[in-house]
Design goal:
mainly alpha
Length: 271
């Protein structure tokens, strides 16, 4: 049985405990039967997946509310994330409820982040994927506002990211999101299919930002950055580390965007 099935069966909420367990218990409380509890070892894949899913959508709600109100654009973005993840009706309802929990005045952001980091056992790739989702939430309207940036820095520093790394991730996610938007405008055909003359496609400058490199970097530096990002976002590797299986589609799209950026740079440089 998957972590999601065990959650609905009344297992994971009690097993996790802490702020994340409390949130899960709050959204599916009437379905949880403590007598049916199964012990999940710290670090187990199902436990990490449950913590990741819970923290992801609750913190998204908190970031959406950072400037005082949740806009229609932010709600649509959250719905788009759920669509890209391919959530079924039951999982979608859970995600919506978790998002609402994060908007609450008494949401324990610090407690959730501390437990999330502990449950992930400092698995850097997982925490980076988490940060990328939160950054995309903050820029739902195309701009990361001052208050949203402050919350992102708080979240990132709580998970062990240096300030310059958080700013770099923000730039990378902004570029990746533009790649995704262009691919949707062109019917999803963005698997290395852009040309330098394609004015409706992403720019070479954006491609450099997607990879986190500079135009002045040599071929080997760009290739290393590309391979590192592909490894960090490899769906099978992430799921093995504890990424919820519901997010494998999103991880796959990430690798496609990274590959498209690399191919665009190669054509521009005639490598």
């Amino acid at each position: 049985m998957t972590w999601f099935g065990k959650l609905l069966g009344g297992v994971i909420g009690f097993s996790l405990g802490g702020p994340i367990g409390a949130i899960l218990g709050g959204v599916v409380g009437h379905q949880i039967d403590k007598k049916g509890e199964e012990h999940l070892e710290p670090g187990s894949q199902e436990r990490v997946q449950a913590a990741f899913f819970t923290a992801t959508f609750s913190v998204m709600g908190h970031i959406a509310k950072a400037d005082g109100r949740v806009t229609e654009v932010e709600i649509r973005h959250a719905e788009e994330v759920m669509r890209r993840m391919g959530l079924d009706q039951t999982a979608r309802k859970l995600a919506v409820d978790l998002f609402s929990q994060g908007k609450a005045q008494d949401f324990d952001l610090n407690g959730v982040l501390e437990q999330f980091k502990r449950e992930c056992h400092r698995r850097r790739n997982l925490m980076q994927m988490f940060m990328e989702v939160q950054i995309s939430m903050a820029m739902a309207d195309g701009i990361v506002h001052e208050r949203e940036r402050a919350v992102l820095h708080y979240v990132g520093k709580s998970l062990g990211f240096a300030a310059f790394m958080i700013d770099q991730l923000i730039k990378m996610v902004q570029a990746q999101q533009r790649f995704y938007q262009h691919s949707q405008q062109q019917g999803g055909q963005h698997h290395g299919g852009y040309s330098q003359a394609d004015v409706s496609g992403p720019s070479v400058e954006q491609a450099y930002q997607v990879l986190g490199v500079k135009a002045s970097d040599d071929q080997q530096s760009v290739k290393r950055a590309y391979r590192r990002l592909m490894s960090q976002h490899h769906p099978d590797k992430l799921v093995a580390k504890g990424l919820p299986e519901q997010m494998i589609k999103m991880a796959t799209e990430k690798t496609q965007e990274i590959k498209a950026a690399y191919e665009l740079i190669k054509r521009h440089k005639n490598w």
